[in-house]
Structures
1.
Amino acid sequence: MTSSPEAVSQFLSIAAYMGGLCFLLAFMLGIPRLLGGKAWGRAKNDPFESGVVSQGGARLRFPAKFYLVAMFFVIFDAEALYLYAWSVSVRESGWVGFFEAVTFILILLAGLVYLVRIGALDWAPEQLRRRREREQQHN
Amino acid sequence: MTFTVQQFQALLPLVITCATSVLVMLSIAWRRHHAFNTLVCMLGLNAALVSVYFAAQVGPQAVTPLFIVDGYSLFFTGLILAAGLASVTLINTYIDSFKYNREEMYLLMTIATAGGIVMASAHHFASLFIGLELLSVSLFGLVGYSFHRPRALEAAIKYLVLSATASAVLLFGIALIYSQFGSLAFSEIGPQLHEDARPIVLIGLAMLLIGLAFKLSLAPFHLWTPDVYEGAPAPVGAFLATAAKVAVFAVTVRFLLLEAIGALQIPAIFHTLAAIAIASILVGNLLALRQNNIKRILGYSSIAHFGYLLVLLLTGGPVFGVEGFAAYLTIYVVTSLSSFGVVTLMSKCGQDRDADQLHDLRGLFWRRPYLATLMTVSLLSLGGIPLTAGFIGKFYVIVAAMTFQSSWGWAMLAAIVAGSAVGIYFYLRVMVNLYLAKPGMHKFEAQLGWGQHTSGLMVLCASALVVYIGVYPETLMQLVQIAKAAGVQ
């Protein structure tokens, strides 16, 4: 950490900038409240969609499948990112790196096989029902 | 970077445990068959436990900058694997009555055990964090596994939110330490930590210790413990109390006692840790007094026990401290397995709660005399009564605190004495319930042939060990020399 005059003056200019920013924001939010009028009305609190009156509530029920698929996407995508680190150093990491990457990919594949087999990727209700019936027969 | 055969051999326990988790996953994918999946998991963990012996043959090895495999790490790897195996054994009969997917429990258990092993051999902040997350993330799933019970989701959410916060604090602390030293390796940070530490280093260390203290449920960060212990299925409680805590404590001790001994000489850090130790002992013992739930009592008791262990860490020094706390942790693991084991043997996962209320244990002696005897032995050991293993552990702690010769040493000693005295009361309170007249109706009953199941045999062995160590501690004292060797270097 340096404390030469140049550095201090730089910090001061940043501080002045931050101060100006805060003042401007407070001014823009505060002045209308003090000087502006306020209109009240029955339809004022309705959501406004380009002049169209909205229909129904926004609280729809989504099937949890979307959530599940989004989760798998994030997991596998994030795992695949690790391979970029390997791909830029394939030559340097040599055969050891290669086998480590193979192990990594195989473990990911095993995870995918597991997901398919437990029916996490079954999309249609028909498939799910059939699977459930099969499992009940097993038990 | 070269990777030699010796290094691979040293890493065998970890490799086998990780391979087991993949194998268990594939075997579930192949066929959902409870006995078969359990067999895969058990075989894998047993192989890993055996491989600890072969890993010990190659001597201390630094495997990549992240791991070090020496006597110390192998001792705790063995302990974590044994505790994990015992918990898996307990799960086997417990979960049979569970209506939903049973097999994933083994998967989560092996992953958590692998995380524990990573922590036991970590000497780098990166591997510490990876291990910690492997352990905690699989524990979130395990704690909430019996989701049909009202308490389970509460426990899982509490553990998830609080544990994630603690991990964030820990990570921030690591970042602050890194900003000053430019390294994440314990061995490079250690020598630079000394009494005139910069404020940023102090803040970093404090945040690091807050994160670790949360995972160990030390006093101001203990609030989650009783709720999570109560909501989690009993075998998971056993795992939380044993393997999870052993792993976190092993890495804490490696950092504070073996690598960065200077950190304890910083007055602010030492005073804070001493205050935390005293607070844990008092809070743990006092709050357990009015509890009617045996799992909550065991939770508070674990807070107090980790207070004792912190005293040992602060006063023992690298040689005696490592020996003492290896012995203490072994004793604590065996005792907890036996007490949680009895609760597990009484309960079934299919029921809406475990047999954890004191009145469920009422009159157990007249129904299942041997089970009640095992419970009595483990409670006596938790209280530190002579001729049980707990006494040997407490002996180590008191010797360390007495030879420390400072006012903090005496203060901690006073807290230990007061805490133990209070502790006897609530352990005896549970015990009295075991021998009262049996009630006319009871909801929970251990199976008649409990002693013929592997889980029953495991609990029997654990209790036998409690008595054996208490009567003849020589074996344990020789065993902990393996861990101590790392402290001498």
2.
Amino acid sequence: MRQIFRYRDLVLTLVARELKVRYRRSTIGFLWTMLQPLLMMLVFYLVFSQLFRFDLPNYPIYALAGILFWNFFSQSIVASMNSLRGNAQLLQKLPVPKAVFPLATVISGVVNLVFALVPMLVLLLWRQHGLPWSLLFLPVSILLAALFTLGAGLLLSPLAVFFSDVVELIGVLLTVLLYLTPVFYPMAILPEKVRWIVRYNPVRSILEVFRDPIHYGKIPPLEHLAVCIAIAALALAAGAFAFRRNSDRIPFYV
Amino acid sequence: MSEAAAVFARARARPGAAGEEPRIELRGVSLCYRLAKQRVPSLKEYAIHFMKGALAYEKLWALREIDFVVRRGETVGIIGRNGAGKSTLLKVISQVLKPTVGQADIHGTVAPILELGTGFDPELTGFENIYLNALLLGRSRREVADQIEEIVEFSGLGDFVRSPIRNYSTGMLARLGFAIATAWLPDILILDEVLAVGDASFTHKCEERLRRFHDAGTTVLMVSHNAAAVRSNCARCIWLDAGRLRADGPADEVLRRYEGHGTDPDERRAGHLVTGS
């Protein structure tokens, strides 16, 4: 941890580089970050409130907030798994603390998420004729989501170094997880029999802390928040522990 | 003056003689690369083999029971054939690889001079790369900002610092790499076959800077295939052979044996005799 603090300037530079690569080449890159979730939301909107019909007020906002969270979560995990391999040359030559790479990946994911929030705010203004005060709570939600995601990234990224097929495997698992998380459907449509699976899915808790202030316009209840803090802390502790244990072996395998 | 006397005189003159504080202490260092017999191990294969109880690995000991101490102010050459373990040894000293067995104590900051282009991003400008590279070496933004003019000046890149380094020549990259790694006075400097590139005037500048470091007490490790380069820069030399320490002593003596070895069967049979240092 102290090592990473010493290399904090490096982390920021890596973040800046990652964003630059993403946004320099094209203005499309920048627009795409905002446009892609909107298009996905539109598809979900057409499918779920026009074809299947369920009643949820402000479904477009519900779905869009879910998609933004999910994109951040899944893309950050996959990118942190690739970050060690992508920097193999450096890891074999320099004694940099290896965690800076997944860390920088998650931080640039947060920046992308913040950019992608802009069209969300526009949509809110248009549909609700104003922004709820509860949006001020979003930084806390994003922080929790980031810590949770970083924990998962730290846990999985050494595995991706040791075994080449882990990235694909996790890709499949993420798809399964997407369906087990109420990203684009409301909890209410689930039959009672399977609802408990989704209820005990930690990703759902983190998602709701992010979405409630946007969609319902209210700050999540204290006990829910406490559960989420515990989940994020646990994920981060597990990730940091696993990463530390494996970190010496990484340069041998990248 | 006899050759032995010359060696003795030089050993006396070098400031890094016994009594100085140790900078690198290796005790019984062995390092093993575990190579999976099947290329690109996947989790699926791992699971299958694990269940069959047939997880086969090939063990490659790149270093075996290496012991030596290098003190403040010493300049040590490291020689050996390809695959003798020189690069692995440098990675242990720069703390990239942890020894499988044994203890490697490194005291102070290590400045590795990297192979061409490592730690650079071809799309970024020279200026941006100075930051990236120095931060990778563990410097802070402020430290880089304080030194950046000096780095640009030393590298002799001029206005080129403002263009992406994919346009640079090999010599320019080497100069920039050297300028960054040596911008701060390190406790230990690692040179891995780098002084070969660059024109005469730059080589001269490098040597001057190395001399200044040496006078300030920096410990220098130099890996080279070039016996002449080792002889002219190093008082002491370490010879690695198949991962073992074959010889460690005054450069002239070790180099004479290294050069003679291969032609002299007696010498080869003598095994890894360690001459005192």
